[in-house]
User: Fold this.
Amino acid sequence: MADYDLVIGGGTVVTPSDMFRADVGVRDGRIAAVGIGLRGERTIDADGLLVMPGGVDSHCHIEQLQPAGGADEETFVTGSTSALAGGTTSVITFSTQFKGHGILAPLAEYRRRAAQAMVDYSFHQIITDASDEVIFNELPQVVASGVRSLKVFLTYDPLHLDDRQFLRVLAAARRTGALVTVHCENYEAIRWRTAALLADGKTAPKYHAWSRPAVIEREATHRAIALAEMVDQPIQIFHVSCPEVAEEISRARARGVKVWGETCPQYLVLSAADMDRPGFEGAKFMCSPAPRDAAASEGLWKTLHDGVLDVVSSDHSGWSYGTPAGKRVNGVDAPFRDIPNGVPGLGARLPIMFSEGVSKGRMDACAFVRLIATNPARLFGLYPRKGTIAPGADADLVLWDPKRVVKVTNQLMQHVIDYTPYDGMEVTGWPVTTIRRGEVVMRDGIVQAEPGSGQFLAREPYDLIKPTGRLPFGFDASAFPV
Ligand code: DUC
Ligand code: ZN
Ligand code: ZN
Assistant:
């Protein structure tokens, strides 16, 4: 009798630290052994392929409820399909709060919708209104239910928090044991520059980048870190777009502050020039923060190499280009201010990072695994169940052909959005099989998974995000209901 339900045989196993030829034995959906000569009831031949942990996308927007009603076009089924096609097996998406409302009811609604997912999933709880009821009553319940990370926006109408509200969220996170993730841009500076640009008739998509230069991201990042340092609350800075923002993180880390940073493929391979395409085309590349320039991208690769930024997520936020409810919801002549922000990237994240990172010699495959799977799993309390190949871990694997050359098309992305900003890009390296908890859910581009087969990942308390204990004057203001 075979020892394993499934053996992935003869591939090159890539862990966060090593690469070696070995078989991976799977039993009951988990990795049971990594060794030589393993025998399974079924075998998948991985000769010539890399065997890597399934991707963990710790920042993507799926079926997010909109303030005006309705939800994102990308559903948990279509988003899962794209993720699995691209080698990602776990996601952390969002439960959002609308100002004046609570957070328990929307979270229940997201749980209901996400029950259709085919990837494993968790949520970041967005706080847009730090009311007493939310901060002192509802938020502790949300965190206790396993939603162990919060998200705040320092810009965007109608989402942004002022500094006092941000402090209240940081304090609540400290009391309840959650990580806070932060969208860092200066709200008033963007509004002021936007008003001036519109007054000058500068309305085209390219002026989106002009409205929010890197300095306003740097200022907000500095402020977010300073306030988190004062509260002694660990944070992650979302979607760092350029090296001068990463530098704020680096300086704080040197002081011992628990701050981490992520970036996304759009900041590594796109630029503000993409928003300057003819007509309305530039809208396809509009996201916030805005992509910068080639020098910023090169600098970001260095921050990944140096470990200053240690997660690459997609920030998948899809708005179709050709449909009335997507990018052109306010018409093709809409000023940049009124064009929805966000680019799709769930399915593109791994191929782009592998091709631009590993195939182009900027990093080895172990570093790639750390950035797209291990580090997000560690930071968000999913490790070692997710993000590595080791006995006991879920058998979430992607079998990767490092030599396959593919031209990216929207069809290959398998999301519901009608375009990809990476259309036509040639990549070297491609996922051929995705395995989720021991089940083959994608083979040669065909996704076969039952809607509802994804599992909610309740996240328990974990040491990495514990406060440091360093407080100004030793006074813990977060202990008071203020
Ligand atoms: N920026 C965000 O902060 N979220 C989603 C889309 C975007 O561009
Ligand atoms: Zn954001
Ligand atoms: Zn986002």
Remarks:
- The CA atoms of residues 229 and 255 lie 10 Å apart.
